[in-house]
Amino acid sequence: MYLALLTKKTKMTSMEKRLQKELQAMTKDPPAGVSVNTNSLSSNLSEWVVDIEGAPGTLYESERFQLGFKFTSRYPFDSPQVMFLGPNIPVHPHIYSNGHICLSILTEDWSPALSVQSVCLSIVSMLSSCKEKKLPPDNALYVRTCSKDPKKTRWWYHDNSV
Amino acid sequence: MAAQAHAIDYDPERNYDEDTLAQQREIEKEIAESQPLISSLFTFDDIVEEYTREDEVYRHKIENLKTRYANLRKTRGDGNCFFRAFGFGYLETLLSNPTDYQRFLEICEKSKDELIALGFPQFTLEDFYDTFIDIVKQVKNPGQLEKLLETFNDQGLSDYFVVYLRLLVSGFLQKNEDDYIPFIDGERTVKQFCSQEVEPMGKESDHIHAVALTKALRVPICVEYMDREGQTCNSFMFDPTESPEESSPKPALTLLYRPGHYDILYPL
Questions:
Q1: What are the pLDDT digits (tens) for B165-179?
Q2: Which PROSITE patterns match (chain A) (predicted)?
């Protein structure tokens, strides 16, 4: 399915080339609990939906979530915009009820050597290490006042324990 | 007064993040439009007024530099200037040094597998390596200076090159973790330091980045520090062989440091 999408254009931008490589790797050898929803891909690969499943033995065991990825033409130099989508947003101290995620690699600590796969693994691991399902303390104010784009938030990363 | 007025206007129910970030992007855009990634050659007379506007003490220091250096190239202040200055400056010297070119190429070619062995993901690493090594190979033939300057001013190619140098520094620090952990500030592991301060683009380089890069590629460099203290620049030699001072090798290139920024110097 996605291969048909990809071969349509003859000349790809460097963002598309890179994402195509990532997509192949993720489809061929997906990390545990992570799968790309290939029906969701836009034709130039600038938007993806990735299904993730809470790891066994954690608070989120067998819960299913959807992560939305958006890439600009400057990817991988610009970080992707990543947020939870749909009706089931994990209740977690670093995840706001509108799907925005407070994770440093999504903004300040993003590096072009990271990838969709490494972002998904960090998010799965963030869920797995959670000890108590609760919303971020400033959830109400943040959700009321924030931009629609989580990359337009100046995140404060102060707690690495969960 | 201004601070007070600001305090009165401040609305705690409003989110200012978007405005602040938009302002930061605007500043970055202005820098990008006004400064090439790597400039053509300047003389000290060309830049003395500009540098002196920051601080009058630089006037004396530039006079001092003129006794030892003929020219300089400016680099864009985008947080990657150390890596870009090193990359361009060193490749430029290789244009007229085929022996060093061969040595450097071999080190570079070995580095990819070493980084993969350290756990860097192969498919992202390969992308950066392929572009990096293509750029290195550009200097195999002499007389390619214009081409090299063009390459380093092509944001895409230039940034790919910078990423790979950042990964080399990260790999070197992680491989020699025990030696470098005492120099890492904050309660961080070497790996955390690398993912926060080395691998992301735009994170400025410190002493530790320079030590690691010169050792990873075995390229001795000299840095002239033009800070606000004293009347002359202090030079510091990054010598990857750690030979005793009297026998330390001739630097392959010299960089000029002003607080937060690196440019390239050319000896008389």
A1: 999 999 999 999 999
A2: UBC_2
Look at residue B5 and tell me whether its pLDDT is greater than 90: no
Separation in Å, CA of A71 to nearest CA in chain B: 16
Q: What is the DSSP string of chain B?
A: -HHHHHHHH--TTS--HHHHHHHHHHHHHHHHHHS-SEEEEE-HHHHHHHHHHH-THHHHHHHHHHTTEEEEEEE--SS-HHHHHHHHHHHHHHTT-HHHHHHHHHHHHHHHHHHHHTT--HHHHHHHHHHHHHHHHGGGSSS-HHHHHHHHTSHHHHHHHHHHHHHHHHHHHHHTHHHHGGG--SS--HHHHIIIIISSTTPPP-HHHHHHHHHHHT--EEEEE--SSSSSPEEEEE-TT---GGGPPPPSEEEEEETTEEEEEEE-
Token code pair at residue B240 = 């990857």
- Report field, pTM of the whole predicted structure over 0.90: no
Find chain B residues with C-beta within 8 A of A146's C-beta. 15, 17
Q: Which of B194, B209, B233, B261 is catalytic?
A: B261
Higher local confidence (pLDDT), B149 or B123 = B149
Distance from CA of A104 to the nearest CA of B (A): 9
DSSP A5: H
Q: Give me the phi and psi of B146, to 5 degrees please.
A: -60, -40
Q: Do A113 and B121 touch (CB under 8 A)?
A: yes
Flag if B127 and A18 touch (Cβ within 8 Å). yes
Residues of B at the A interface, defined by Cβ within 8 angstroms: 13-15, 17-18, 20-21, 120-121, 123-125, 127-128, 156, 159, 163, 166-167, 195-196, 199-201
Per the model's pLDDT, the better-predicted residue between B9 and A85 turns out to be A85
In the structure encoding, which two tokens stand for residue B108, read together? 């570079």
Confidence of residue B3 (pLDDT cuts 50, 70, 90): very low
Q: Which residue has the tokens 């938030």?
A: A153
Of the candidates A109, A118, A152, which has its C-beta nearest B18's C-beta? Answer: A152
Note the residue count of chain B.
Answer: 268
| Percentage of chain B exceeding pLDDT 70 | 95
Q: Is residue B78 flagged as an active site residue?
A: yes
Using CA coordinates, name the residue in chain B closest to A140: B13
What is the complex's ipTM, to 2 decimals? 0.79
